[in-house]
Prior knowledge:
The chain is an alpha/beta fold and 394 residues long. It is built from nine helices and 18 strands. The strands form three sheets. Strands 1, 2, 8, 9, 10, 11, 17 and 18 form an eight-stranded mixed β-sheet that branches. Strands 5-6-4-13-14-15-12-16 form an eight-stranded mixed β-sheet, sandwiched between helices. Strands 3-7 form a two-stranded antiparallel sheet.
Amino acid sequence: MSSSPTASAFRAVPSAADVVIIGGGVMGAGIAFHLAEAGVHDIVVVERGELGSGSSGKPIGGVRAQFSDPLNIELGSRSLRAFQDFPQRPGADIRLDNVGYLFLLTTDEQAAEFENSVRIQNGLDVPSRMVTPEEARRLCPYVGSEGLVAGVFSPADGHARPGLVVRGYAAAAARAGVTFVTHTGVTGIDTAGDRVTAVHTDRGVISCATVICAAGAWSGQIGEMAGIDLPVRPVRRQLAFTEPLTRPVPRIPFTIDFTSSAYFHNSDDGLLFGLADPDEPDGFDTTWTPEWLGLFRDVVRRRAPALADMGTASGWAGLYEVTPDHNALIGRSGELVNLLYATGFSGHGFLQAPAVGEIVRDLYLDRAPCVDISPLSADRFRTGDGTRPEAHVV
């Protein structure tokens, strides 16, 4: 294997494998690393483009444990510890910056909801706390306190570089013998009875003993090929980078106006801006439209006025992989016993990826995972088991 996992673009597609992982983003690469580390051999990762070229190539990079659902808190916390340890295991600099997450709250209802979440988080050893509007402004000098009711801050959160995480996992997995086949699309899946028997690609067929779907926004299509329902829809999200700022940029938390979803954080010698357009239709379009910036500027004129007139140098659009309740799908198919899935993270996939890699490894090895992920089964929408509550969706 070349020292660069992406150098496998023109390798022959293996005719057989024990495990085929569909998707070479942070989920696929992380799962491959954890399986290989546990001694699983003969793993092939199939990626339609370059590694990390889907949603993993264009997320905002936030890492946090500030959620309202204890299960998401646990996944975030466990992953934060793994990100902290990433230079040793698997061994890569991911430019982790633990600047914290700062949520800005503008109603008493939001404050009460987040106070309850902080109690749950503190009970799970997350060092979050409520802050006054004045303290929020001290933490992030760009914030205007007008209209602010409160804030919530956790110093353990922050941001990292997703591309570096993908490459770090993939390089370590490749050293352990994992085969990465890029520029290879999945075109079909064969089944017999309750098992997957082969994965068809546009460069050959791979017979296999296990398939793991980590295809992000494309997972619904993969599920259809196998005859199972993975309810994931793609939604475009856009962000922008400011021009380099002449004066030194203060080191600020990852700051989010919860009402509007507008967010910003440090990026090199400028800032990164983002906002979820509530009117964005479903679809795979990743065209960046500068007009979107008008939505962001309208919001921050009230919440962080200094940002409203900053010039932008560039921007891009990526895809969220959204489920009906904005929570992940993780588990083993009820219909196909050798098909596992980890998808539909609704914007939280990067920050939960290390923990999910461990969980999928354990599911494959028939071991009890570190947390009970049965509530995240894709079957929850079909059986009426109830959707997952998660208030802190951005």
